[in-house]
Amino acid sequence: MTPSARTLLLGALVLCALGDAAPTPRGHCAGNRCFALFQDPEDFDGARKGCRVSGGDLVDLVDVVDERVLEILSVHGSYWVSRNDTPAETTAGLQSCPIVSSDTGGYKPLWEPCTGTRRGYLCAYQIAEPCMGLQAGGGAHVNYTTPMGFRADGSETFPPGTIAVEVGGTFANSKHVCFSADWIRAPWTCEVLGGGCEHNCSSEPKTCVCPAGKILHRNKISCTADPCESNPCMGEGEECRNTKEGFQCVCRDGFVEEDGDCVDVTICERCEHMTCQKFNSVYRCTCREGFRSAAHDPTKCEVVCTEKDCPAMCDRNNQDLCYCPEGYIKVKHGGETICTAISDCEEQCDHRCETLSGGGRCVCHEGFKLHEDMATCVPITEEEEEGSGATPLPLLPNPGSSGPPAVSSYMKTGSVLGISVLAALCAALMYLLIRSAARRCGRLQISSIKRQDMDIFYLQQVTSETYKRLSLDTQSRSNF
């Protein structure tokens, strides 16, 4: 790992550990060295540990002689420093440790008990591959925060991992990080300080992500309230679109802007002849010459027929599937399907014409059916009357008609004929029942009209005992 990479990683860890600690330490960097003032009350051992945690060490007394550094850091009070020419084991056994103090006027090195508490301590750092100051546009002010956790505003150089924020009002104009003596603009790699994003960072593609209800600021790192969240675009066909300046009301898909309004043009996508024109600020489908818009569907086109008879529009793959314009009906003539005007329906139909909504049809009198030419009526045969299973060919109304198809006259005739046959069968059955009953009743009445003195003879098996009983009965009747 290069020194710049190590410093950047260390800086990230230090910044995470410091969090929102206050006050922010001050520092100054020049060349390959940095000095920082930490105002954390500590004894000598605590001060030395504090410097080493951030990758530095206590400032040596030799450096303290340079009062220019102390003035830049605005040192007021007494702070712990070190004597690097003293062996570590000797320093550990000292009862007094060096400090620098401004309490006696000027900056003088003094010795105080090592276990005492001072206002803070001064740290020194060695840096490699530092960055020069960031060139901000328009002379904007730039705030620098080093990975050691101190502010380095006004420094000549900056250690790797330093975050440079170009101040631009409520939101920063930009954010950069120092790496290998160069400034990298945010968003950078998400693994390093979250890519410099205010909220979340996405690696693929490398960009900052905002929570719901917010949008990405034009600086590409901050999040601001979404102006479209309140739905400010209320015009017909309008939608809100975020811009760098805020938001803009634009026309949705299927609408075009004309004179400041969004006009619906979705009907143009469904036009049968693919032509569309605007009439009174409304787009409508138009048809090629010789055609007109169908009344039942404004996106469809139908043939314009100015004569009494016109050729029907038939499917190339199915000549039986033909269409006529509104006000005309289909009629087969000479093997060709034509369209004839409803007003001339009576002339075309063999019996009579039945006018429907948007069309007409020929119908036949009772006992007749419509021929395949849909105009001629032919008699219904006996086989058809007895229900041979043959289905009469119906004549459909004009396709433009929205009304239900009428019941054919021969269908009505068949129904009446069936009812008549059923009634005749019922009558015959009733006649046979009455006749049978009359015969039975007649037999019962014959015996009742005979003479009262007529003897009734019974036939039964004759035995000797029966013969004797019958003789006695005869004698008894003689006596009476």
Walkthrough of the structure:
The chain is α+β, with helices and mostly antiparallel strands and 480 residues long. It folds into five domains: 191 residues, Mannose-Binding Protein A, Chain A; 32 residues, Laminin; 34 residues, no CATH class; 29 residues, no CATH class; 106 residues, no CATH class. The protein has nine helices and 34 strands. The strands form 13 sheets. Strands 1, 2, 3, 4, 5, 6 and 7 form a seven-stranded mixed β-sheet that branches. Strands 9-11-12-13 form a four-stranded antiparallel β-sheet. A three-stranded antiparallel β-sheet has the order 26-30-29, with no helix packed on it. Strand 33 and strand 34 form a beta hairpin. The longest helix is centred in the C-terminal third of the chain and has 38 residues. The protein is rod-shaped and about 150 Å long. It starts with a helix and ends with a helix. The N terminus and C terminus are likely disordered. It is found in: Membrane.
Q: What is the overall number of helices?
A: 9
Mean pLDDT: 76
- Given helix and strand content, the structural type is alpha+beta
- Helical amount among residues, as a percent range? 10-25%
Provide the gyration radius in Å.
57 Å
- Proper CATH architecture of the largest domain: Roll
What would CATH call the class of the largest domain?
Alpha Beta
CATH superfamily of the largest domain: Mannose-Binding Protein A, subunit A
Report the β-strand fraction as a percent range: 25-35%
CATH topology name of the largest domain, in short, is: Mannose-Binding Protein A, Chain A
β-strand number: 34
Gross morphology: rod-shaped
Total separate domains: 5
Distance between the termini: 159 Å
InterPro entries: C-type_lectin_domain, CTDL_fold, EGF, EGF-like_Ca-bd_dom, EGF-type_Asp/Asn_hydroxyl_site, Growth_fac_rcpt_cys_sf, Tme5_EGF-like
Pfam families: EGF_Tme5 (PF09064)
Keywords: Disulfide bond, EGF-like domain, Lectin, Membrane, Repeat, Signal, Transmembrane, Transmembrane helix
GO molecular function: calcium ion binding; carbohydrate binding; transmembrane signaling receptor activity
